[in-house]
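Here is a typical sample entry:
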Amino acid sequence: MLTLNYFFQNPNQQYFKKPSAKERPTICPLCFNDVITHFPRHLLRHHKDNPEVQAIFKAKPKSKERSSMINALRKRGYFYLNMEKNVLNPMRNSKNSSTKYFVCKYCLGHYAKNLLHKHVKICKSKPMDCENPGKYCLTESQTFMAEMLYKNTEFLKTSRLKNEVFQLMRADDISALAKSDPLICLYGESLLQKHKRQQIANVVSNKVREMARLLLALKRFQNIVGLFEVLRPEMYSKLIEATKIISGYDDSTKNFKAASLALHMGTNLKLICNIAFKIVLENKKIPNIDWDDREKKKNELKDLIQLVESHWCNDISSLALKTLNEKKIKNRVELPLTSDVLTFQSYLDEIAQKAYECLQYETNVNKNYKILSECVLAKTVMFNRKRIGDVQYLHVETYKKNSILTNNEDFENSLTPVEKILSQKFKRVITDGKHSKPVPILFSQKIQKFITLILKVRETFNIVPKTNPYLFANPNSLKSWMSGVHVMRRLANASGAQKPHLLTSSRFRKHIATTLQLMDMESTEMEQVATFMGHTKKTHEEFYRLPQDIYQTAKVAKILLLLEKGRGHQFKGKNLEEIELDKDVYYSSEEEAEIQDEEKEIMPMKQDITRSNDQNEENQISSFNIKQAEVEKVDILNLDELIKENNEMRNENHKEVSQLNEPKVYKKRNTVKTQSETKPILPHMQESKSKNSMRIKWSSEEQKIIKHYFRENIKNKITPRKTECQNFLEQYGSQFINKDWVRIKTFVYNTFRNK
């Protein structure tokens, strides 16, 4: 099989670097015989009847015209010499042995990679109507060599892959291998057949390069020529290893750098096998694809497909999917800041208005046309919250068509006056979106004014050729459009936003979905919004809604707190939005953890003593049928006495329960005092009452006192501790009889939080 080195860089290849081109061996392009020296003499002696040779010798001897015609034939000879014998004769030698050489597709001369574009611009063999000579010379050279490898058959000449994809591919080892492998080319052609849009060429280019990278990795393990000979069951383990190489698999961490590539490589392999099976089944004659036994090759392809279907999941897909899910967990979902959105919007308005005014006076038309077009593109994406592709691929004819409005009087009468005005001021355009679905785009009157001027300038100054159908077309381009991703990124970085990397179309779409979730929208309304966004209601709910971390923290935590307090039955029949959670529920559950370490150790003792005393009082009252028992209350502040008494109560707990009804026993432990001697009990000395008690509105006098006392906390936005609230109640306890320390703390927190 004929092999070809695209870059003509082979350690076994012969290089002739003598200064004189006459001394270099070549092949005569007319008779294909070897010519060692005196190439002009060979032409004169053996091909004097050839029209080209006759034209050469009609020219003046030693003239530039005669010399250029001889060199043209000599270049063709060098090209055939390289094709047949793998001997390279570049037109200009380089001292660097790693220099890569490419072929000029017009004159067939070999030039260094960094010099080819200069030669193409002055090449005398190129046609006169060649546009942008030298722009795509490297990739065109690769494509030309691929055609020569296929021996100029019809395999690539009429292929969409050659006309739409090859010129987009970077001229490197990967693309060279992709173009030279016929099975990879057929794979790309099959992908193109399923689509008709021009922008699919970028996707196909990526897919083709992925398979070429796989083939390059396979060549590390075995000396193979093409992908077709790899499609055997015994090569399955090599396919696994090659996939791990190109996807960056780390054996120590079991992670992939490019997990998505590893995930869909199994699907790509099955498609490749199906294409190869079709070739064998139809017994097609494809250049550089052959087999010995047809039935054997069919069975090999079937077995390999079965191996991929049954074992690829365990070998590759499972770990790749786990890597993807772990990355999603670690990556924080951020939405654009409101301040950044406003900054970006004002920046776009400013530069768009300046460009609009300059275009009106025809100042720097090319520059201001591009600025205004980019601003309109960014503003349209930002306002409509659309995908980049829905806007950047919009055609001029589609925009000029007036949208068909439904003449429904009942529906129009149901609109509010403001909604009727909006329906008249905005222009609605329907374009083809993702999966060929109709997607509406709204244009305000200001944007319509900008677009009208853009179209006028295009026609007047011929900035964009008439063959370019796109509304946001690149200047001086026949069929390309502005890249919305690059436009948004560049303008966001120049706007001065704090986080410009968040100002993207996908995050704008998540932003509107988050806002819609906060609204009380019906199912039909949500479906209409999802249709406008260009996806289904299910997609809207699964991928564009409020991030799960916010929802779980803000919504689900509310339910958990209520269940913790035993109040779940109170909200029967209510949804999450109707449940209102009191601030004191949160503080009583969480904020008590902020008290000092000493208080943390003593709190269990306080609760035990208070609970035990409350139980004793209730039993004594039921025994003596007394409404108010004059019993000594425990002074919680006396910690030494508290600890001692608590230990005694725990040791004699079983005795106290049986003797609660006897007054003598109670008096031995607690001496009854008169009402005048009893120490008054302040609210802060008691445990917090039930949270179900009715809340009392704060009076203006109470608010004034508490704000003055905690003015430093409010100023510095510091939540007061429990002891600080208790000290306040000791000082102003008579005026805050119905308030405990939790409510004091909550009031101070809400005061500085709302500022």
